[in-house]
Amino acid sequence: MPFQIPENLHPDCGPVAWMLGTWQGNGRGDYPTIEPFQYGQELVFQQDGRPFLHYFSRSWIIDEEGQTVRQAAQETGFLRCRPEGQVELVLTHNTGFVEIWYGAAENGKLELTTDAVARTESAKEVTAGHRLYGNVEGDLLYAYDMAAVGQPLQPHLWARLQRA
């Protein structure tokens, strides 16, 4: 299905318009404090004509055959689009932490870095992150680097998702 830019898209959202819709696929994760894993994921980016995209992600751990083992992370937030491709992301996680990110979008790429992280008393310590999203051959590829639980910023998640 070809992607069509909505008529009511706010001009500031132009650099991230390619992300609109629902994306599904699989990824891999790794970190020094956990065993490597595979996961399935669904991302949804929606807009209503104002200068932001609503974002929702849900994921589940899968085995080598692609069967669901258990539910995993969920996150939701708003990708706030600013003039000239500048973006802000306000993100909340089901695991008890919230983040503010800043970055830029251009030429089918979105790159973000954390500015602030806050957490609940029971959440794990996450201190920083870096996200890179790209439109590669019509798919959404991303990588997420994380600094958490005393570890420095390093690769944590990466995936390739297709438009549903």
TrEMBL record:
GO MF term set: heme binding; metal ion binding; peroxynitrite isomerase activity
Query: What are the alphabetically sorted keywords of the record?
Result: Heme, Iron, Isomerase, Metal-binding
Q: What class of enzyme is it?
A: isomerase
Any one Pfam family here would be: THAP4_heme-bd
Cofactor dependence = heme b
Q: Where is the THAP4-like heme-binding domain?
A: 13-163
The UniProt transmembrane annotation reads none
**Domain remark from Swiss-Prot or TrEMBL:** Forms a 10-stranded antiparallel beta-barrel structure able to accommodate a hydrophobic ligand in its interior. In fact, this fold hosts the heme group, which is located in a wide surface cleft.
Q: Which protein family is named in the record?
A: Belongs to the nitrobindin family.
Q: Which EC number applies?
A: 5.99.-.-
Q: How is the cofactor bound?
A: Binds 1 heme b group per subunit, that coordinates a highly solvent-exposed Fe(III) atom.
Described purpose of this protein according to its UniProt entry: Heme-binding protein able to scavenge peroxynitrite and to protect free L-tyrosine against peroxynitrite-mediated nitration, by acting as a peroxynitrite isomerase that converts peroxynitrite to nitrate. Therefore, this protein likely plays a role in peroxynitrite sensing and in the detoxification of reactive nitrogen and oxygen species (RNS and ROS, respectively). Is able to bind nitric oxide (NO) in vitro, but may act as a sensor of peroxynitrite levels in vivo.
Pathway given for this chain reads: Nitrogen metabolism
Q: Which residues bind heme b?
A: T33, K124, H156
Write out the coiled-coil annotation as residue ranges.
Answer: none
Among CDD domains, the record links this protein to:
lipocalin_heme-bd-THAP4-like (cd07828)
Annotated organism of origin: Nocardioides marmotae
Tell whether Zinc is among the UniProt keywords: no
Question: What domain of life does the native source organism fall in?
Answer: Bacteria
**Where in this protein would one find the motif GXWXGXG, according to its record?**
21-27
Its UniProt entry gives the catalysed reaction(s) as: peroxynitrite = nitrate
Official protein name in the record = Peroxynitrite isomerase
